[in-house]
């Protein structure tokens, strides 16, 4: 068979049944990505005779005699294709995993298709950008500042350093490499929600040709751990084993097959015989807490950091300031309701997975898609009793995370297989496995009581949260505590009460997810503020202004925290409220809608601590190189959060140079130092601060070195335009490097940040919606968000984080929902049945930034990747209530959910 790929003929024969995507990747065209295996996401898009197709759906043999173009072949040796350049100019990507497929589709559009982008791009999903930067690329808009003078990088809209490689398909993600002798891992998973494994018969599986090992709980260390990764292990319960003899949810791994091919491993999985003793299963968290309920983890105790295993409680909290019940009884107005949040999948387009091997020095190497390489190394070292210097964990570019990759779901199995076989191994989860066997957002039941006096001042706030953590307690306690903290700490109120319960059930585990518990409670709290304002005849903006904390006010949520390091590094909440109110009141396009449509406005605000409590550590190292540039080493990972860009901007500004002179190495434990990880709103605030500290120290060292050479007072020296200047004397950095080399004294500096004290960020979201009272259909007419990010390190990039956060949150508020049946089975474990927002679903959000300078963050900046998500569902719920007069308390706000109440009210 003959193929033409990117203009070059190939005669290689594909395997029987092989799809075009795997065929192309095996030929080294790594720009063709795997996202769904079902033609739903478009990450594998290629051009077949000039037409875009999903290569995961095309049998490879059907490309015979046809011209295949991958992203690598779209441009030429002389430069990028115009569409690749357009994506660079607009920075139409974040993690970049979808970008190759998106560019190929966009490059194929004719003028007619460009007039209806919602239809033209429906086959390509982006989880990061919110699509607006992609639209900018198609409109030929330039969002970047190409030329910035030395020392002026911070605060400018500079492009991502990996951009050229991303748009040309050269950026390397986890599996974009070829390794000789690679074995493949496939996992046998439990069909039962709760069962004890009595026996496992491997014999038939081991007889499959090409199978090297079948690993079960008998082959794995029996160490108890948590899949959650935190700097401090005490934050999570020890309730999980690599492979267990008890399965607690449908989809839990039972055995791992290691074979020469995925096909052999899959066949072996089918041949494993498992004898199960079925145990009672709990699906509902309220039933799980009831007296006499079956126990999910009967052997766990408080020594394993499980609060009360007999009640299926992983964690609980209770606290009160004042007397809520007494004050509510006498409040002028009051509100009480119960809200429910649902399961949402992270849906990062790159699924969990990795590669592992032992090198010649006996070091276990794990190349993986993770947000936390250093914490994963520590866990593998502990589990397998290996010295830390015998474990290396690293990641290349990561295809999205959103908190889901703050877990260890695959690295332990990879390490076990590599150590048992002595061969390099690969494990890449399918999209279905991502749904049924990793983690979700915590579903919560939130009961709220709130009261206010006649002047609109809050008198009492009470929250009761029941959080369903699923079968294991990864992040259970921290998410529950977080959901009850900043959500009410942002409001001044003399009487507050919280009761929180995180409960085990026999369902897929929940875990870390963007917002970390705040979106679930925020929808209830912000609804209460609106409902109290309506009863008093006060505008929702004014109600918030009268009650939000201001600089100097204590940020209180019971019970009292043992951590007292949260301060107002900057305060821009007042500006954010003003910006959103003005934007919502400004004239805009008037919708042409029939009387069937009801129009309403909604607003919600949130506050978030910029770093998790109890320490978040980052090290950085920067050195002057021989060419007069700088080599910067950081531990934090890049997965669309933009830290790679910001680190270079911080260093370049501090060292009076340009970003192209900063050469970045990151996210590899072999580079030394330590980094807790890119999570908890810490990428810029903590890791960036370490970079700033290292760069400031090196700036001092450069001046000292020049002063020593000139025999002058170092106080007369300054950095300017890639030189050290003192009076009329100038010494270029390259000359300093030569001088240091001759003296045998390299100029290198280290920086460290411990994540304390912590600051707070603020976001305010406004929506105008139209709801069709006859059908339940909802249209978003206006979307506005204002953010207090301190000094905005990169306005274009930060705006993209806000747009992407709003889009992702809208997906959860309007469409996305993991459905679990009465047996505990996920019934929609694929994108086809799980509605991710596409281009047509997402409105353009107007983004505004408060003008503040944070006194703690690097160069005045603070976090803004996580928090834009938090107020979205709450603001949308308030807008729907304003339009319809009906308070809907359980997203997603799908038409079929809205219709019954609308029909009852309006007929």
UniProtKB/TrEMBL annotation:
<dbReference type="InterPro" id="IPR016208">
    <property type="entry name" value="Ald_Oxase/xanthine_DH-like"/>
</dbReference>
<comment type="similarity">
    <text>Belongs to the xanthine dehydrogenase family.</text>
</comment>
<dbReference type="InterPro" id="IPR001041">
    <property type="entry name" value="2Fe-2S_ferredoxin-type"/>
</dbReference>
<dbReference type="InterPro" id="IPR046867">
    <property type="entry name" value="AldOxase/xan_DH_MoCoBD2"/>
</dbReference>
<dbReference type="InterPro" id="IPR006058">
    <property type="entry name" value="2Fe2S_fd_BS"/>
</dbReference>
<protein>
    <submittedName>
        <fullName>Aldehyde oxidase</fullName>
    </submittedName>
</protein>
<dbReference type="InterPro" id="IPR012675">
    <property type="entry name" value="Beta-grasp_dom_sf"/>
</dbReference>
<keyword id="KW-0408">Iron</keyword>
<keyword id="KW-0479">Metal-binding</keyword>
<keyword id="KW-0500">Molybdenum</keyword>
<dbReference type="Pfam" id="PF00111">
    <property type="entry name" value="Fer2"/>
</dbReference>
<dbReference type="InterPro" id="IPR036010">
    <property type="entry name" value="2Fe-2S_ferredoxin-like_sf"/>
</dbReference>
<dbReference type="InterPro" id="IPR037165">
    <property type="entry name" value="AldOxase/xan_DH_Mopterin-bd_sf"/>
</dbReference>
<dbReference type="InterPro" id="IPR000674">
    <property type="entry name" value="Ald_Oxase/Xan_DH_a/b"/>
</dbReference>
<dbReference type="Pfam" id="PF20256">
    <property type="entry name" value="MoCoBD_2"/>
</dbReference>
<feature type="domain" description="2Fe-2S ferredoxin-type">
    <location>
        <begin position="1"/>
        <end position="74"/>
    </location>
</feature>
<dbReference type="GO" id="GO:0005506">
    <property type="term" value="F:iron ion binding"/>
</dbReference>
<dbReference type="Pfam" id="PF01799">
    <property type="entry name" value="Fer2_2"/>
</dbReference>
<dbReference type="GO" id="GO:0051537">
    <property type="term" value="F:2 iron, 2 sulfur cluster binding"/>
</dbReference>
<dbReference type="Pfam" id="PF01315">
    <property type="entry name" value="Ald_Xan_dh_C"/>
</dbReference>
<dbReference type="InterPro" id="IPR036856">
    <property type="entry name" value="Ald_Oxase/Xan_DH_a/b_sf"/>
</dbReference>
<dbReference type="GO" id="GO:0016491">
    <property type="term" value="F:oxidoreductase activity"/>
</dbReference>
<dbReference type="InterPro" id="IPR002888">
    <property type="entry name" value="2Fe-2S-bd"/>
</dbReference>
<dbReference type="InterPro" id="IPR036884">
    <property type="entry name" value="2Fe-2S-bd_dom_sf"/>
</dbReference>
<dbReference type="Pfam" id="PF02738">
    <property type="entry name" value="MoCoBD_1"/>
</dbReference>
<dbReference type="InterPro" id="IPR008274">
    <property type="entry name" value="AldOxase/xan_DH_MoCoBD1"/>
</dbReference>
<keyword id="KW-0560">Oxidoreductase</keyword>
């Amino acid at each position: 068979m003959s193929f033409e790929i990117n203009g070059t003929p190939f005669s290689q024969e594909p395997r029987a049944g092989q799809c075009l995507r795997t065929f192309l990747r095996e030929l080294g065209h790594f720009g063709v990505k795997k996202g769904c295996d079902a033609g739903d996401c478009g990450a594998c898009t290629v051009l077949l005779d000039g037409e875009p197709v999903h290569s995961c759906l095309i049998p490879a043999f059907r490309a015979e005699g046809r011209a295949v173009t991958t992203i690598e072949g779209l441009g030429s040796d002389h430069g990028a294709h115009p569409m690749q350049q357009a994506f660079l100019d607009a920075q139409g990507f974040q993690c970049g995993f979808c970008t190759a497929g998106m560019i190929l589709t966009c490059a194929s559009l004719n003028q007619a298709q460009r007039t209806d982008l919602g239809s033209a791009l429906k086959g390509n999903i982006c989880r990061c950008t919110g699509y607006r930067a992609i639209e900018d690329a198609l409109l030929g808009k330039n969002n970047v500042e190409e030329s910035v003078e030395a020392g002026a990088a911070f605060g400018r809209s500079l492009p991502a350093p990996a951009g050229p490689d991303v748009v040309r398909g050269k950026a390397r993600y986890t599996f974009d490499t070829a390794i000789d002798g690679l074995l493949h891992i496939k996992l046998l998973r439990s069909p039962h929600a709760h069962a004890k494994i009595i026996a496992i018969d491997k014999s038939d599986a081991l007889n499959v040709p090409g199978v090297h090992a079948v690993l079960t709980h008998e082959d794995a260390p029996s160490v108890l751990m948590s899949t959650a990764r935190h700097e401090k292990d005490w934050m999570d319960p020890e309730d999980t084993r690599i492979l267990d003899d008890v399965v607690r949810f449908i989809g839990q791994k039972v055995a791992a097959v290691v074979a020469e091919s995925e096909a052999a491993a899959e066949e072996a999985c089918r041949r494993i015989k498992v004898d199960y003793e079925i145990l009672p299963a709990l699906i509902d968290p309220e039933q799980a807490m009831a007296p006499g309920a079956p126990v999910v983890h009967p052997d766990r105790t408080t020594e394993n950091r499980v609060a009360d295993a007999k009640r299926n409680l992983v964690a609980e909290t209770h606290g009160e300031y004042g007397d809520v019940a007494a004050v509510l009884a006498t409040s002028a107005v009051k509100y009480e309701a119960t809200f429910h949040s649902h399961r949402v999948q992270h849906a990062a387009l790159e699924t969990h997975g990795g590669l592992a091997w032992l090198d010649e020095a006996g070091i276990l190497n794990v190349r993986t898609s993770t947000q936390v390489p250093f914490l994963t190394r520590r866990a593998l070292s502990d589990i397998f009793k290996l010295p830390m210097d015998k474990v290396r964990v690293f990641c290349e570019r990561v295809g999205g995370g959103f908190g889901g990759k703050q877990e260890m779901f695959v690295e332990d199995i990879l390490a076990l297989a590599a150590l048992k076989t002595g061969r390099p191994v690969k494990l890449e989860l399918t999209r279905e496995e991502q749904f049924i066997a990793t983690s979700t957002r915590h579903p919560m039941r939130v009961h709220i009581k709130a009261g206010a006096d006649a002047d609109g001042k809050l008198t009492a706030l009470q929250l009761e949260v029941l959080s369903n953590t699923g079968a294991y307690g990864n992040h259970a306690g921290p998410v529950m505590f977080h959901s009850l903290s900043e959500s009410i700490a942002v409001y001044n109120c003399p009487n507050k009460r919280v009761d929180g319960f995180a409960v085990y059930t026999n369902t897929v585990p929940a875990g870390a997810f963007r917002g970390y518990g705040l979106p679930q409670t925020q929808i209830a709290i912000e609804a209460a503020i609106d409902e109290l304002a309506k009863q008093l005849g006060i505008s929702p903006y004014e109600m918030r202004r009268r009650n939000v904390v201001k600089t100097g006010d204590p940020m209180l949520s019971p019970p009292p925290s043992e951590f007292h390091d949260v301060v107002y590094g900057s305060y821009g909440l007042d500006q954010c409220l003003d910006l959103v109110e003005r934007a919502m009141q400004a004239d805009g396009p008037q919708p042409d809608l029939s009387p069937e449509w009801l129009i309403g406005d909604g607003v919600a605000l949130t506050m978030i601590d910029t770093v998790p409590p109890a320490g978040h550590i980052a090290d950085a190292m920067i050195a002057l190189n021989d060419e007069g540039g700088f080599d910067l080493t950081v531990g934090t990972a890049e997965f669309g959060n933009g830290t790679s860009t910001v680190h270079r901007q911080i260093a370049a500004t501090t060292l009076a140079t340009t970003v192209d002179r900063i050469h970045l190495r990151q996210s590899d434990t072999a580079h030394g130092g330590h980094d807790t990880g890119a999570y908890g709103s810490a990428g810029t605030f903590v890791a960036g601060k370490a970079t700033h500290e290292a760069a400031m120290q090196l700036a001092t060292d450069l001046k000292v070195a020049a002063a020593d050479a000139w025999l002058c007072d170092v106080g007369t020296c300054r950095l300017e335009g890639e030189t050290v200047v003192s009076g009329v004397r100038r010494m270029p950095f390259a000359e300093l490097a030569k001088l240091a080399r001759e003296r045998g004294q390299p100029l290198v500096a280290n920086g460290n940040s411990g994540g304390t004290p912590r600051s707070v960020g603020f976001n305010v979201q406004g929506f105008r919606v139209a709801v069709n009272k006859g059908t339940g259909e909802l249209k978003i007419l206006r979307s506005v968000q204002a953010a207090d990010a301190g000094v905005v390190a990169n306005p274009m990039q930060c705006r993209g984080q806000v747009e992407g956060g709003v889009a992702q949150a809208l997906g959860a508020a309007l469409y996305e929902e993991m459905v679990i049946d009465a047996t505990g089975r996920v019934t929609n474990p694929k994108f086809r049945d799980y509605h991710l927002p596409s281009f047509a679903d997402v409105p353009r959000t107007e983004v505004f930034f408060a003008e503040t300078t944070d006194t703690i963050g690097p160069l005045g900046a603070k976090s803004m990747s996580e928090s834009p998500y938090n107020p979205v569902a709450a603001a949308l719920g308030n807008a729907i209530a304003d339009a319809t007069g009906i308070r809907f308390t359980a997203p997603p706000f799908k038409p079929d959910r809205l219709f019954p109440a609308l029909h009852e009210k309006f007929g």
